[in-house]
Amino acid sequence: MKHVEDRFGDGVPEEVLLLCLGITSGVGRLIFGRVADYIPGAKKVYLQVVSFFFIGLMSMMIPLCNVFGGLIAVCLFMGLFDGCFICIMAPIAFELVGAQDVSQAIGFLLGFMSIPMTVGPPIAGLLRDHLGTYDIAFYLAGVPPLIGGAVLCLIPWVHERQKLKERAKRADGETTEKMLENETTLVSDTTEKPVKEMESVF
């Protein structure tokens, strides 16, 4: 809101931007929640990657908007992918950590999210006081989502490797169990034969 006042003056209805963000965020949750139903397993992370990239890009585009209509368009896209980010968060946590640890995973996620949300506005205010504009704050705010999206691209690969290791461990466990069963049957057979021979002699 302060950026809009500095850039466009008091005659612009800046509350329209919050309205656009809220409406498209709700629409995004409905749309991307339905889309996520058709994406199997941990590949839902790629939806999160797309939302992170768009949120970062839209944040960086806010200072570039010299027309209020352009700022509305940016907020519409940002709200849409914000809704994607929020609705996909819980299903991804469920896919990655399982049903037993999903509540703890979401708690950690929300806890870490609260750190930049708390620290970000004071830093933006300090930058505004020193530089006289919010432009650098918006550029810097777009960097973490882009980096986070790039890191998230590796999550499905890591998840698949963990699954393969678990399957290999299970296969090793099954083979060792079968070997132990075969050994026990051989031992029991070897002990039963002399007993039968002795009985036949008597």
Distance between the terminal alpha carbons, to the nearest Å? 103 Å
Alpha plus pi helix count: 7
| Cα Rg | 29 Å
Profile the largest sheet. Answer: none
Structural class: mainly alpha
Percent of sequence in beta strands: under 5%
**Based on CA inertia axes, which overall geometry fits?**
elongated
Low-confidence stretches: none
Fraction in helix: over 70%
Secondary-structure element order, N to C? HHHHHHH
Mean pLDDT rating: 81
Number of strands: 0
Write the layout of secondary structure elements.
Elements: H1 2-8, H2 15-36, H3 45-61, H4 68-97, H5 102-131, H6 135-152, H7 155-201
What does this structure look like?
- With 202 residues, this protein is an all-alpha fold.
- It is built from seven helices and no strands.
- It has helices spanning 2-8, 15-36, 45-61, 68-97, 102-131, 135-152, 155-201.
- The longest helix has 47 residues, at 155-201.
- It is elongated and about 90 Å long.
- The termini are far apart.
- The mean pLDDT is 81.
Task: Report a brief summary of the structure.
The protein is mostly helical and 202 residues long. It has helices at 2-8, 15-36, 45-61, 68-97, 102-131, 135-152, 155-201.
Give short descriptive properties of this protein.
transmembrane, membrane, mainly alpha, elongated, MFS_dom, 202 residues, 7 helices
